[in-house]
Design goal:
Blueprint lengths: L3 E4 L30 H17 L5 H20 L22 H17 L6 H17 L6 E2 L3 E4 L6 H23 L6 H24 L22 H25 L5 H17 L3 E2 L9
Helix pairs in contact: 1-2, 1-3, 3-4, 4-8, 5-6, 5-7, 6-8, 7-8
Length: 298
């Protein structure tokens, strides 16, 4: 069966057969007890808040971001076995709403999706981790609404990988990221805030590397942190440094997602946290706001 499923405006009927996503069912309940999962409840609440915001008057930039967010929400609802949303409301200059603001709703949803991703009983944790990273990043950058938005794309399931290979790939990505962040930090002209952000990102990657190394200590063969073979470009100025960081963090996302999908359950929490951190970093450094961070780009 093909690993490709079209999402974002054209939801393929083949979705229910994709090994990545839960099967689409006639009813919204997909837990063994027939009760909605907390993440499903959060997805419904988020959609209600986004629909409420769409009925109000927004500036052009935020209206564009909201329309994009609604299209992503359409994908999310189907991906977690929920019914499609009803017709979107028409904006009215006089409309008001008592619903949470979009960024508040996104932040709340991100937390719920993250908890769902880290639950030991959750099927398809990568789907929930991706949704959490998306919602949290969009909440963080909602105010400026000036970032680039990924258009609709085909969604490709991560290729099969052994748990040992998954951990090794994540370790290699962590080592390359640390090396690249050190390279970027050497650029002259970065602001103190940018330098502090690079230090924070480097610390996060070191935490992932150390956690994975410790977790895999008893594995055979034992995964090891990568050697400095990376093809990291030189940076001549702050613009080069920003582009390098955005590229490195973006390139790491599908590696981390594949590791989360196929790696040991004990590593899921570390990997989900880094997917969230890297998604925020990509946008913070001028990269693309992705629809499904951590899933392979088509």
């Amino acid at each position: 069966m093909s690993r490709r499923v079209v999402l974002g405006g054209v939801l393929a009927a083949a979705l229910s057969g994709c090994s990545l996503l839960p099967p689409t069912t006639p009813s919204p309940a997909s837990s063994p007890t027939g009760v909605l999962l907390p993440g499903q409840v959060a997805a419904i609440a988020l959609r209600a808040a986004l629909d409420a915001a769409a009925a109000t008057s927004l500036d052009a930039a935020h209206a564009s971001v909201l329309a994009w967010a609604l299209s992503v929400s359409d994908d999310h609802l189907m991906a977690v076995s929920l019914p499609p949303a009803t017709a979107r409301p028409t904006a009215s200059p006089s409309a008001t709403t008592s619903s949470p603001s979009p960024w508040e709703a996104l932040r709340t949803a991100a937390s719920a999706f993250g908890v769902q991703a880290r639950s030991a009983t959750t099927a398809h944790p990568l789907v929930w981790a991706s949704m959490s990273a998306w919602a949290g990043t969009l909440a963080e950058h909602w105010a400026d609404a000036s970032f680039s938005l990924e258009p609709a794309r085909a969604l490709v399931a991560p290729a099969p990988q052994s748990p040992q290979e998954a951990v090794q790939a994540a370790l290699d990505a962590a080592s390359e990221a640390v090396f690249g962040l050190d390279t970027a930090a050497g650029a002259s002209g970065l602001t103190p805030e940018e330098t502090a952000a690079l230090r924070s990102q480097r610390a996060a990657w070191l935490t992932l590397r150390d956690s994975l190394s410790e977790d895999a200590a008893s594995a055979s063969p034992r995964p090891t942190a990568g050697s400095p073979w990376y093809g990291v470009e030189r940076v001549a100025d702050p613009a080069d440094a920003r582009a390098l960081v955005a590229r490195l963090e973006g390139a790491a996302l599908p590696v981390l997602g594949r590791a989360l999908a196929h790696g040991p359950a004990s590593a899921q929490q570390f990997l989900a946290s880094q997917i969230e951190a890297s998604t925020r970093a990509v946008v913070r450094w001028g990269g693309l706001m992705q629809r499904w961070p951590g899933l392979p780009l088509s």
